[in-house]
Each structure stands twice: as C-alpha cells, then as structure tokens.
Automatic annotation (TrEMBL):
Enzyme class of the recorded protein, top EC level: ligase
Species this protein is from: Candidatus Thiopontia autotrophica
Presence of the UniProt keyword Aminoacyl-tRNA synthetase in the record: yes
EC numbers for this chain: 6.1.1.19
Top-level division of the source organism's lineage: Bacteria
Quaternary data: Monomer.
Compartment(s) of residence: Cytoplasm
Protein name, as recorded: Arginine--tRNA ligase
Catalytic activity: tRNA(Arg) + L-arginine + ATP = L-arginyl-tRNA(Arg) + AMP + diphosphate
Pfam families: Arg_tRNA_synt_N, DALR_1, tRNA-synt_1d
Length: 585
C-alpha cells in the first residue's frame, strides 16, 4: 500500500515538472508514513515541506499542487492537506480488501520484498569460545541473530550465517590444561585444580572419555607436573599459575599428545554447541576456524600488509598497530613479546577474509561487553584500505534469568550456570526464541521462566499461538457443521465487513509488509514480535465479539476469508522468529 501511494506521489511530481510548474534538481526520495491517528487518514507524506524551498513556494501551496496532480486511484477515497503542508491519504475499503486477497494469493511469501537489492551479507553471531556449553546469555545472541538473518532474507538480502570458532589462543590452552588436570585426577594423582581453570562437569566428562580411550598415555606424576609452576591463589598469582601449567603440559606431553587433548576438548565442546544450536533452530552456513587463519598464513599476511603501510611499530619486543591513527583510543598489540599473535591480529585477518570472499556487508552480533572492541576492528579495516562502514556491529545485552522471582547467578569459569539446553528443556524452544527477541537487543533483559511457562494471555508467545490455533478451531467447527468456504465468494464480498473489529483487523494485517521492512532495515526483530502480539489481540477481540460461522453464507465466507488471511500472517511472522504455529493448544 505504501509503495502504491509512493508511485502516485512520484507520478504527481513528474507531471508538475513536465508541465513547468515545478523545477527540481533531482528526483526526490518520496517518503510515505502511516499516520498515528486514523482520524488524520491512513497514510501521510511531508514531500511538500521537503521540496518547498527548492520549489521556491509555500509548503501548503505546493501540497495543493501535488494533490491536484495525483492520478485517479480506486484505493484513495480522499486527500487532505494538514498543518504546515502534510498530505493525508484516506484509503478505501477496497484497498484493504485487496490486501486480504494478496495475503491468500501469495501465502508463505506474503510480506517479502526486494528492498535489500540482493546485497551479499555475512552475519557472524554467537561465536562463543568452545570452552563450555552455551548458557542462557548466548541464547539471546543466537535467537536475535537467527531472527535478524531471516528478516534480511525476507527483504531481499543474500545472507550467509557464520560461527567464528575461536580454536586458537590462550583460552584454548587453559581449556586443554583444565582437561589434563582432571585426567590426572582420574589416573589417581592428587591434583589441586587451578583456580583459573574451567571447572564445569563437562571437563570431567571429556577427561573421562580420554582416560577410557587412552588409558594412562598422558599420565605424569603430579610432583613433576607442578615442578617450577608458580603458586596459585590465594597466596600466589592465578594467571601465572595457569600459564605455568600450560607450559608444563606442552613440555611434558610434547606436541602430538598435547594436540590430542586439545583436539578432544574442542571437538567435544564444539560438537555440543553445534547440536544445541541446531536443536534451537539456529543453523549456520559455515563454521569458520580461527586456527585456519594461522595455518594458511592469512594472519601473517595481514600483519605484513600493515607493516608495509607503516601502521606497525615495535616496542618492548612486541608489535603494535597504530590504531590511534584511525580513531581508536590507544594503539593495540598484534604480536606479543613472546611471539604469540593476539586475538585482535586474527580478527583483522578474519574481516579481510570476509571481504575477500565477496561480501558487500559484514554484520557482527557481539555481547555488549565487547563495546570497546568496536573502534579497533574498524581501525583495522581502515588501515587495510577498506571502508569501515562495511562493518556493522550489533550489540546484545546478556539476559538475566529469574526463577520463582529470584535471579539465577551464572559464571562460565566456575561452571555454575544455566545452559541454553536446560532453558529450552524448561520452557521449550518457542518460548525461548520469542522471549529472547521481545526487547531491543541493546536493552537489558530479565527472562522470567514462570511467565514463559504459563498458558495465559500474559505470556505473549502463548497468546499469539492461541490466536492462530483459534482460527484452526473455527475451520474444524465449520467442517463438523457441514459448511464450506468459498475463497472466491469471500474475497468478492469483503466489503460486507463493516464492523469496527473487522476494519481494525484488516488494517493490522495490511501493516505486516511495511513492518517487516522496518524490522529488517533497523535490525530489530522485536518490532515483529510486538506486531504479532498486537495482531493477536485484534484477532482475539474480534473472535470474542462476533460469530464467524453465521447462517448468512456470503457474510460467513467474507469473515472466514479475513481470519484466514490473519492466520497466514501469524504463520509467516512466527516462522521468521523461529517459532512454531500450532493448530491446537
């Protein structure tokens, strides 16, 4: 509907230019917006005010000229000029009837558009270090990322979803050392587990598998393991202690055995993450390994390129990137004094790899705690001769989990956290996916488990699914009563739907396409979630106020046609959010 009104205004402006009434430097971008108050019409445009200065005329006078040049349209009942020069459009009932017909004709594709222009986008989200199971905080990034990707695909973007596997670096070494310590414990050695190690039960599970499959292959006496290792907390330094254990593991085990434990740990945890996300309905096109950037020298090539442009300097044995030259608050280390490359060095190489693969835009969804990391990544792109705006960073606040009104404490390192799998088991995938996207991603979220489990109108996902199920119930009742629905008759008699509840529902359905576009362009799936809840309210209100299976066949067909259009919108919208549309509740 907005597109058709836009075309009417564009036609009017073209006519005014051709007739010499209006002289414009270029074709303007016509903006059509839905009015907040329907007493002011259905849609409005401010083009008269936008163009008045260029046209050297009064906005209201220009508005009058535009209205006078508008082509005839069966969709527009009347136009009005309001305020300083707004043009308000009042649509006919036939216009809304056409929308209902379109919904049923297009079906699953209703609401989709090509506004994205086939732009190639790579989306990277979740990408949690494979050091343990996904927790409820990761779940929010997963739900938000998957829903945003679906919205972009529905609006004409080519989307490639990617999980960046951080399988290189210190955290993986800490994981390996943690598994080895538990393995030594299972071999009968009296090990005092490091404070800075990963302590969850999953570490025991990995160690037990190694012990079962390899016996005592990796066994070394604990006094040999601890020889020369700095003391741990509380009297020592936990960081120095874990680094000492990593050094001992590499020295005593040797490269091959160390790699075996390292691989076993990452494979087990990454496999669990893959399964967890797949069961959650979050599917990736690619799982990209950070280690692969090391193995194929991509990181080395990135550093060499920065050195060639004099963006790298040496200080105290380390290599530093001059990120302050590109807007960062301080320069950043890319190679430490011990020769190890930093995570940031890998990140520069990874983003260059994305662009080299032909993507037009990169969208990264990160936890809000990565906010300070954004400027340095953009600086890396700029230094590489790329436009930083090709990288879009969307931040997600982690979710706080509440059960019985009390907050559940979580700590990944200590292992005392609620996993995403546990959450899904407790409330189900549908509630988890929907609740995660119910608020703006950058806003803090309190996840109420009791509400997510409840079967009431207070639970938004249940409320929406119940609206969909109610429509199916009407169709079952119609069959039981021996009644039939004629789509042709229903569509040709939509003008009979004159009740206020019917008009409100029609308007609600008509908003879906523009809502979808807005949610995609603004990367805000919560817009769709709130829209579906509003549409469910409109359906429930209509259901409670009127009988659908009336004796008047013509009116009955029109009402069934209307609610079937609503059903299709519920199906389409819920699918984009990764939520099912059950036929029974």
């Amino acid at each position: 509907m907005k597109q058709q009104l836009k075309q009417l205004v564009e036609s009017a402006l073209a006519h005014l230019c051709e007739s010499g009434v209006l002289q414009l430097e270029s074709d303007p971008a016509v903006l059509i917006e839905r009015t907040r108050d329907q007493s002011h019409g259905d849609f409005a445009t401010n083009m008269a005010m936008v163009l008045a200065k260029q046209a050297k005329t009064n906005p209201r006078e220009l508005a009058q000229k535009i209205v006078g040049a508008l082509p005839e349209s069966e969709q527009v009942v009347k136009t009005e000029i309001a305020g300083p020069g707004f043009i308000n459009f009042y649509l006919s009932d036939a216009a809304y009837g056409e929308v209902i017909s379109e919904v049923l004709r297009v079906g699953d594709k209703y609401g989709e558009s090509d506004v994205g222009g086939d732009e190639k986008v790579v989306m990277e989200f979740v990408s949690a270090n494979p050091t343990g199971p996904l927790h409820v905080g990761h779940g929010r990034g997963a739900a938000y990322g998957a829903a945003t990707a679906s919205l972009l695909r529905a609006t004409g973007y080519q989307v490639h979803c990617e999980y960046y596997v951080n399988d290189a670096g210190r955290q993986m070494d800490i994981l390996t050392a943690s598994v080895w310590m538990r393995y030594l414990d299972l071999c009968g050695e009296e090990v005092v587990f490091p404070v800075n190690g990963y302590q969850g039960d999953y570490i025991w599970d990995i160690a037990a598998t190694l012990h079962r499959e390899q016996g005592e292959l990796f066994l070394h006496p604990v006094d040999v393991v601890m020889d020369g290792v700095p003391e741990d907390e509380p009297d020592g330094d936990k960081e120095a202690h874990i680094d000492g254990l990593i050094f001992q593991a590499r020295s005593l085990l040797g490269s091959e055995q160390y790699s075996q434990i390292h691989h076993a740990a990452i494979s087990a945890i990454l496999g669990d993450i893959r399964d967890d996300l797949a069961e959650f309905g979050v599917i990736y096109d690619e799982w990209f390994s950070e280690q692969s950037l090391m193995d194929d020298s991509t990181v080395d090539q990135a550093i060499e390129k920065l050195q060639a442009s004099d963006d790298i300097y040496e200080q105290n044995g380390a290599l530093w990137f001059r990120s302050t030259n590109y807007g960062d608050e301080k320069d950043r280390v890319v190679v430490r004094d011990n020769g190890l490359k930093t995570y940031f060095a890998s990140d520069i190489a990874y983003h260059m790899n994305k662009l080299n693969r032909g993507f037009d835009r990169m969208i990264n969804i990160w936890g809000a705690d990565h906010h300070g990391y954004v400027p340095r990544v953009r600086a890396g792109l700029a230094a590489m001769g790329q436009e930083p705006d090709r990288l879009e960073i969307l931040l997600v606040q982690f979710a706080s989990l509440y059960r019985g009104g009390e907050k559940v404490q979580m700590s990944t390192r200590s292992g005392s956290f609620v996993t995403l799998r546990e959450l899904r088991s407790e409330v189900g995938n549908d509630a988890a996916r929907f609740f995660y996207v119910l608020r703006k991603s950058e806003q803090h979220m309190d996840f109420d488990l009791d509400l997510a489990r409840s079967q009431s109108s207070e639970n938004p996902v249940y409320y929406i699914q119940y609206a969909h199920a109610r429509i199916h119930s009407v169709m079952r009742q119609m069959g039981e009563k021996g009644m039939e629905w004629s789509q042709e008759e229903g569509e040709s008699n939509l003008h009979l739907l004159t009740e206020s509840h019917e008009k409100i529902l029609m308007v609600g359905i008509s908003r879906y396409s523009e809502l979808l576009e807005s949610a995609a362009l603004q990367r805000e799936p919560h817009q769709l979630a709130h829209y579906l809840r509003d549409l469910a309210h409109e359906l429930h209100t209509y259901y409670n106020a009127h009988q659908f299976l009336v004796d008047d066949q013509v009116l009955r067909n029109a009402r069934i046609t209307l609610i079937l259009a609503a059903r299709q919108v519920f199906v389409n919208g819920l699918r984009l959010l990764g939520v099912s549309a059950p036929e029974e509740m």
